[in-house]
Amino acid sequence: MALTHTRGSEAERSASLPDAAPEAVPDRPVAHSAVVAGLEPVAPTDAEAPSAVRTRRWTARPLGVGVVGLWLSVIVLLPLAALAATSLEGGVGGFVAAVSEPGARAALWVTVWVSAVVAVLNAVMGTLIAWVLVRDEFPGKRVVNALIDLPFALPTIVASIVLLSLYGPSSPVGIHLNATQPGLLVALAFVTLPFVVRSVQPVLLELDRDVEEAAASLGASNRTTFRRVVLPTLAPAILGGAGLAFARAIGEYGSVVLIGGNIPKKTQVASQYIQQQVETDQPVNAAAVSVVLLLIAFATLFVLRWAAGRGRAREVSS
Amino acid sequence: MKVSTPTRLTLRVVALGYLVVLLLVPVVLILWRTFEPGVGAFLDSVRTPAAISALNLSLLIVAIVVPLNVVFGVGTALALVRGRFRGRGVLQAVVDLPFAVSPIVVGVALIMLWGVGGWFGFVERSGFKVIFGLPGMVIATLFVTLPFVVREVEPVLHEIGTEQEQAAATLGASSWQTFWRITLPAIRWGLTYGVVLTVARALGEFGAVIMVSSGFPGVSQTLTLLVHSRYLDDHNTYGAYAAATLLMGLAVVTLLLMTVLDRKRSTR
User: Fold this and answer.
1) Most buried residue, A317, B94, B191, B204, by CB count within 10 Å?
2) Do B23 and B94 reside in the same domain of the chain?
3) Which residues belong to the signal peptide in this entry (chain B) (predicted)?
């Protein structure tokens, strides 16, 4: 891995190709007209003229990066840029007006509020489940462990149907959460379940039990040990998982579309509001709320990354 | 930390109870409701012309999206790991971007770009239907699945380094040969894992696709749109359960594949 070379020296090397020394080989292989012993000929190369191969080698890397950049731009960046541009079609004033419409404000508020509750619920229950999966032993533990990933594998619309069957109008136990905020909560808790569990589990496995035992032998109660020894170690993982759950929850659509009921100002979440604005042909409103949703997600992820970076720095310095 | 038996049992009951109420009972209930009228009823429901064309459309989208993601995903991963160019950090961030974007926002953004009034509106005006057509659904799926192959292949490329490739090059292999015979075999499990994730997400994507699809049964409905429209528009609850069960079956297959591949990757 000690080999790092600039593009310039590589160009030189390809000029003096035949006697390229082994230690000076670029990390993209050199072209050779004849197939050397030890490597059987491969069909495509036989057809290529040596000169063609050589010129391709010259341009391969910048061209590759260019193609990749173009692909990412067309698929990801340009749509988002067009979205941002549309949201500003009426100027900054138009953007603010679109976002502060009562329907938009209510939808954003419901979204952030329910997502925050879901994040907290995940932080508590996810940690508890991770604890039970790591520290407890019971028959069928492996099955339970595998079950945790199910919400990530299930399509969101299936999650919606699945929850409606138990908590919807035809509920066999008489619980009707259809078109209520608790209904939203259940749907979002379902799809975000794995985040905290999967981020806390590995940390718990790595946790040094000696420290806990030391605390206990010094007379600390279980509660003190948990609060002062275990929780501080788990905190970054819990926070990270809960943050990801929050970021996922604010954008959710499929899982809440059937159970949420889409009642404006009550259970309508931001994504449903956006869809409604598109359908009623108000693209600026849709784009503006979309941009706000994006900004909240970016801010969440940015804070998480920053916190993780700080945590790592502290670990190194200590 | 020695937890007393009552505490341990309480924690266990609370954790498992939460999982049972949130996950297990709803899933089992759906299965029960689907198969209660018999397997025949289930098969009839997923073999209606609309259901078959929905399955075909979903598979067609997968068949278009997977090769594109493999080619560009491996290319992107190679550029990120091996490339020395300015703006690599930006490229890294762009690859992760789709994870942070709500599916609905993906759909809206695509309408703003490819719709009649959008920047690329000339494509639509020239008669090539992007939004409310198959291309729109494919692009939406590409957007949401873009990170998977890149993020699964990238760490493997890091791990294998370049020594073998350099050795091959010294022995005179062309870049094409080195890629096929050294790089590709080394990344194959990571790549497969990425493809499995891509297939699962492509089959299950709903929000982004519903925004850019016209949603006509038998024409532009994917499996997930079929579940939605059967439940909401046709009030065909049983049909929705059956289609959801079909999708759930596909999801479980994915989960099993992922477990097997995980083992393969770690033993390699």
Assistant:
1) B204
2) no
3) none
